[in-house]
Every structure is written in C-alpha cells, then in structure tokens.
C-alpha cells in the first residue's frame, strides 16, 4: 500500500483514458471504500450506480463531458433523503451534512481507485434529467456527482498547482 501522502499526491482528475476495461473487483472495491466512509449521524445518504455497459457509457459521455469518452466505467452518485436525526442536526447547525457526506464518500472512491492503479474525474456538469431517464432513476432522486473511472493515458501525474500553506492556514497558538 502506498503512503497516504504519496497517494494524495498521485490522485488527479483524468481527462484522457485508454479505454482499457477494468476488472469488476476493482470497481467494487472503490464502492466498498465509499460504503465505509463516515457520515453525519451514520446516515449514509448515498446510493451508487456503477455503469460499465458500453452503449450506456457512450450515452453518458454525451450527457456529461467529452473528456470522459474513453472511461471504462462511470459511478453515478445519488443523494438519499436524510434520516430524521440528520435533518434535525442539519437544522440545528444550519449545515447540509448530506452533501458533505457525499463529498467524503466521493473522495474515498477516488483515493481507492488511485490505490488500485486507476484514474478518476469527478464530474459536476451533466444533464441530470436525461441521465435519470437513461438509468431509470426516479425523478424524485437527486444525482449529486458522477465519477468517470479508467486507466489514464498519461503515464505520470501532472505537477499540482495549489495555494501555498501560508495562504490557506491560520495557526492560533
């Protein structure tokens, strides 16, 4: 297993996939990582659709982003309605923990994929209504994110450009 900091250094948004298929076991491990993610009040407010069918993948590319065209799979992340306990906490704290929880689960998927030698891209720009129709998802459900996943055609991760610590960190001693 990689050192955690090496893993997060290696993880990046992939926009060029090889098209090579992925072993189903690796994809299931990524979902398992999300299943184990923490969530407010242990609400686990997510549901995952794993798409590996080539015809449906082609249609998904047209409904998401062209850069995902050679992805081996897509993971569509739906938001489940929060349980009563989570709703109460959300209201008391004026927070939307359900969305935070989905972000944490998404991060778990992406890091697990990286650990398994796969690449991912989190897609937030997509045609939700048409995807619901394509995947037979009830209209009342909410698609929060879609992850394209596959093998990257780039051999090395790009150099990350991020703000320096002194711009994002305040230490109060």
Automatic annotation (TrEMBL):
> Which branch of life, at top level?
Bacteria
Write down the SUPFAM superfamilies for this protein, in alphabetical order.
FMN-dependent nitroreductase-like
**Pfam families in the cross-refs:** Nitroreductase (PF00881), TM1586_NiRdase (PF14512)
Task: Specify the Nitroreductase domain's residue ranges.
Answer: 8-65
**Locate the Putative nitroreductase TM1586 domain: which residues?**
94-170
What are the record keywords, sorted?
A: Oxidoreductase
Report the PANTHER family cross-referenced here: NAD(P)H NITROREDUCTASE YDGI-RELATED, NADH DEHYDROGENASE_NAD(P)H NITROREDUCTASE XCC3605-RELATED
Report the sequence similarity comment from the record: Belongs to the nitroreductase family.
Know the name of this protein?
Answer: Nitroreductase family protein
Record the organism: Clostridium sardiniense (Clostridium absonum)
């Amino acid at each position: 297993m990689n050192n955690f900091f090496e893993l997060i250094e290696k993880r990046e948004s992939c926009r060029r996939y090889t098209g090579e298929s992925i072993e189903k076991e690796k994809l299931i491990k990524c979902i398992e990582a999300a299943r184990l993610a923490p969530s407010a009040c242990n609400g686990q407010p997510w549901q995952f659709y794993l798409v590996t069918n080539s015809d449906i993948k082609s249609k998904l590319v047209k409904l998401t982003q062209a850069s995902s065209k050679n992805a081996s799979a897509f993971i569509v992340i739906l938001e489940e309605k929060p349980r009563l306990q989570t709703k109460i906490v959300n209201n008391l704290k004026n927070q939307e923990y359900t969305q935070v929880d989905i972000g944490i689960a998404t991060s778990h998927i992406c890091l697990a994929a990286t650990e398994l030698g796969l690449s991912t891209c989190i897609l937030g720009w997509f045609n939700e209504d048409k995807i619901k129709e394509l995947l037979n998802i009830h209209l009342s459900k909410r698609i929060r994110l879609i992850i394209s996943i596959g093998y990257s055609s780039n051999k090395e991760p790009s150099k990350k450009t991020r703000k320096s610590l002194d711009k994002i960190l305040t230490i109060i001693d």
